[in-house]
Amino acid sequence: MTTDATPAPEREILTYDLFGTAVRDLAQQVVDDGFEPDIVLAIARGGLGLAMGLGYALDVKNLSAVNVEFYTGVNERLDVPMMLPPTPAAIDLTGMKVLIADDVADTGKTLEVVRDFFADHVAEARTAVIYEKPWTVIRPEYVWRRTDAWIDFPWSSTPPLVDRRGGQAH
Length: 170
Prior knowledge:
By secondary structure, the chain is an alpha/beta fold. Helix content is 22%, strand content 32%.
């Protein structure tokens, strides 16, 4: 009898409990660093929960979001990330200290597109992520964990209940 000795690919599993820990740890890093953001800007969809949690932990009520599409599936990406409308008007952030929140800096290109879009308008922009991959082109100021594994986030580890592309329910 033979068995398949091929190991399963390594995965980083983030539970909702660990997500809560990550939010508080990241917020503490921001506080310890002395950075006081005027606004927390979420990169949707992955950064929305983190931005909300950071907003509460840092007592920042001014939250906004920018939609960026890059991943289309597991290890499937567009060539470049694309900001989708509506985008916050850069002029609305003039002179503000912005904390940009996302779930992961994988290639880093999404964070780079967002940071560069606002760079000339804000007083300062810093980035916070739950996970950072070793090959990212952006080094976020605030990182909870570093990994080279595929990450199973609690909100995306199971398929959607509805397939909007095909319209079939699961």
